[in-house]
């Protein structure tokens, strides 16, 4: 465990950030799953609506630094491609 006051503070900050990042990552996983479920259920309107929500959530995670910007772009691209393949 940390001995210095600054190190103790840093440990606390790291713990807070870890929990916040975990919540954001979990939310990203859930919205991705919702889009995939809508595609599997063959509901194009629902899938398109969930895709926009997923894009916003993933972009926010990238903006906060929880996800790398390229990881976020890749996730969004793959979901969009999946949703488009259903309509064609």
TrEMBL record:
SUPFAM superfamilies from the UniProt entry: Ribosomal protein S20 (SSF46992)
**Segments of this protein annotated with the region Disordered:** 1-24
UniProt keyword terms in alphabetical order: Ribonucleoprotein, Ribosomal protein, RNA-binding, rRNA-binding
Source domain of life: Bacteria
Q: Name one GO cellular component term.
A: small ribosomal subunit
Which BP terms in the Gene Ontology apply to this protein?
Answer: translation
- Please tell me whether the keyword Cell division is annotated for this protein: no
Extract one GO molecular function annotation from the record.
small ribosomal subunit rRNA binding
Keyword Ribosomal protein listed? The answer is: yes
Q: Quote the function comment for this protein.
A: Binds directly to 16S ribosomal RNA.
**UniProt family annotation:** Belongs to the bacterial ribosomal protein bS20 family.
The record, for PANTHER family, names: 30S RIBOSOMAL PROTEIN S20, SMALL RIBOSOMAL SUBUNIT PROTEIN BS20C
Know the name of this protein? Small ribosomal subunit protein bS20
Q: What organism does the record attribute this protein to?
A: Desulfatitalea alkaliphila
């Amino acid at each position: 465990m940390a001995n210095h006051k600054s190190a103790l503070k840093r440990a606390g900050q790291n713990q807070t950030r870890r929990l916040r990042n975990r919540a954001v990552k979990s939310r990203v996983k859930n919205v991705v799953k919702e889009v995939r479920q809508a595609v599997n259920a063959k509901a194009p309107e629902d899938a398109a609506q969930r895709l926009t929500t997923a894009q916003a959530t993933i972009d926010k995670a990238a903006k906060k630094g929880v996800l790398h910007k390229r990881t976020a772009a890749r996730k969004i691209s793959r979901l969009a491609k999946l949703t488009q393949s259903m309509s064609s």
